[in-house]
């Protein structure tokens, strides 16, 4: 198969979105602050990219309260897991195929 | 060509994020070294309490360890545990600070649960052994449970600690069948091995 660059998912061509998906692929869920700490990005930056992923339905949001503090956690969806796996496979093809 | 470059970069970014998201990477090798030194000191105190002998008396030839000596040995073991935990926490906090992280990060809970659930069970089981008059089996039980805890904890920190865990399980089983060697093997597993492993981890990740 000839590797085609357009098999790469445009939703993941951003470093922050790629990192968020990587984290959620290996954890049941991650809170907003956990993601912020792991990625080392600002609130606004993270919120923007998470919103994009949410619009694609790649992740779902779980809002709850811990005591009186609102808690926002994210988890990957089935759609997101599949899209991410395909993206990684496409990256591998590009590296192997050398195009 | 540019595609390959950026593809490789993306893959390594994905790998590093996945590791960061699941593993506690601030476990300092120096905490292993200090825990080992503390354990050796504890074993030396225990040998002193047992009349200066490093060889334990099998229950068939005696009544095992009882009374005051047993209380002293339990206090010695708890002292080693508390000091080793304090040293581990201190060195790990220092390493976390240097890496610009905090000790209580997104993965600390995973590691603590993997470690302390089997260790708690092991501690309770050692209590059961002592109350059954089988205190000679406490050192092997400590080695086995600690080794199993490390085998699990290896998923949530540097995976090398799994080898340390595996060796501790083997030492514990050996001591289980040769209980007179319990103290020597305990000193080897908790003392020497920690020091060797701590130095190896330090050389690999903190140089």
Written account of the structure:
The complex is a heterodimer of chains A (99) and B (207). By secondary structure, chain A is of the alpha+beta class. Chain A is built from four helices and three strands; from the N terminus they run H-E-H-H-E-E-H. Chain A has helices at 15-26, 32-39, 43-55, 78-97; strands at residues 30-31, 59-66, 69-76. A three-stranded antiparallel sheet of chain A has the order 1-3-2. The mean pLDDT of chain A is 89. With 207 residues, chain B is mainly alpha-helical. Chain B has one domain (27-205). Helix content of chain B is 75%, strand content 0%. The radius of gyration of chain B is 20 Å and the shape is elongated. The two termini of chain B are 34 Å apart. The mean pLDDT of chain B is 91. At the A-B interface, helix 1, helix 2 and helix 4 of A face helix 1 of B.
Unreliable runs of chain A: none
CATH homolog superfamily of chain A: Winged helix-like DNA-binding domain superfamily/Winged helix DNA-binding domain
Termini separation of chain A (Å)?
12 Å
* Termini Cα gap of chain B: 34 Å
Class based on secondary structure composition and strand pairing of chain B:
mainly alpha
Largest sheet entry of chain B:
none
Short characterization:
The complex is a heterodimer of chains A (99) and B (207). Chain A has one domain (5-89): Arc Repressor Mutant, subunit A (Orthogonal Bundle), CATH 1.10.10.10.
How are the elements arranged and paired?
The complex is a heterodimer of chains A (99) and B (207).
Chain A: H1 15-26, E1 30-31, H2 32-39, H3 43-55, E2 59-66, E3 69-76, H4 78-97
Antiparallel strand pairs in A: 1-3, 2-3
Chain B: H1 2-22, H2 29-49, H3 67-98, H4 108-131, H5 138-153, H6 161-177, H7 182-205
Helix pairs in contact in B: 2-3, 2-7, 4-5, 5-6, 5-7, 6-7
């Amino acid at each position: 198969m000839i590797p085609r660059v357009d098999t790469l998912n445009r939703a993941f061509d951003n470093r922050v979105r790629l990192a968020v998906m990587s984290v959620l692929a290996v954890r049941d869920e991650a809170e907003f602050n956990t993601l912020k700490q792991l990625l080392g990005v600002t609130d606004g930056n993270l919120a923007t990219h998470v919103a994009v992923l949410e619009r694609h339905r790649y992740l779902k949001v779980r809002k709850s309260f811990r005591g009186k503090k609102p808690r926002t956690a994210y988890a990957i969806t089935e759609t997101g897991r599949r899209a991410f796996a395909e993206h990684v496979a496409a990256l591998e093809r590009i590296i192997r195929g050398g195009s | 060509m540019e595609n390959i470059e950026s593809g490789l970069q993306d893959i390594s970014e994905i790998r590093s994020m996945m590791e960061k998201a699941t593993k506690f990477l601030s476990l300092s090798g120096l905490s292993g070294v200090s825990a080992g030194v503390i354990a050796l000191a504890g074993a030396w105190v225990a040998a002193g309490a047992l009349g200066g002998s490093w060889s334990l008396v099998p229950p068939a030839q005696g009544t095992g360890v009882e009374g005051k000596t047993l209380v002293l040995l339990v206090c010695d073991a708890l002292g080693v545990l508390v000091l080793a935990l304090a040293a581990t926490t201190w060195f790990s906090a220092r390493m976390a600070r240097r890496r610009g992280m905090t000790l209580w990060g997104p993965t600390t809970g995973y590691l603590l649960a993997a470690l302390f659930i089997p260790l708690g069970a092991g501690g309770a089981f050692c209590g059961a052994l002592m109350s059954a008059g089988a205190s000679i089996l406490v050192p092997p039980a400590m080695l086995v449970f600690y080794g199993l805890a490390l085998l699990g904890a290896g998923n949530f920190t540097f995976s090398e600690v799994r080898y340390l865990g595996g060796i501790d399980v083997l030492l514990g089983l050996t001591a289980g069948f040769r209980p007179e060697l319990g103290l020597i093997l305990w000193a080897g597993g908790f003392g020497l091995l920690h020091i060797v492993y701590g130095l190896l981890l330090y050389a690999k990740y903190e140089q």
